[in-house]
Specification:
Number of strands: 0
Helix content: over 70%
Distance between the termini: 95 Å
Order of helices and strands: HHH
Number of helices: 3
Largest sheet: none
Strand content: under 5%
């Protein structure tokens, strides 16, 4: 009777890494360039969102501080 050997399951990420490392350097460079370019737009959108969040946080902080001061003080600064 034949012996059946069961191999542990390979994750898709492990399979992709094995394929990537066995590829030529030019294929590795092209794939890396593709991944970077594909995510550059997403990274830029996140950066802009963070800048907008910081700007709004500062604006609301200044608004809150302005409400706490008497109106006469605010006009004196103008």
């Amino acid at each position: 009777m034949a012996t059946l050997t069961i191999q542990p399951a390979t994750s898709p990420l492990d399979a992709l890494l094995a394929h990537f490392t066995s590829s030529s350097k030019s294929v590795q460079r092209a794939f890396t360039k593709y991944i970077i370019e594909a995510h550059a737009e997403e990274v830029e959108a996140r950066r802009q969102q963070m800048m907008m969040k910081e700007s709004l946080t500062q604006a609301f902080k200044e608004l809150k501080e302005g409400k706490a001061r008497p109106v006469e003080e605010l006009f004196n600064e103008l």
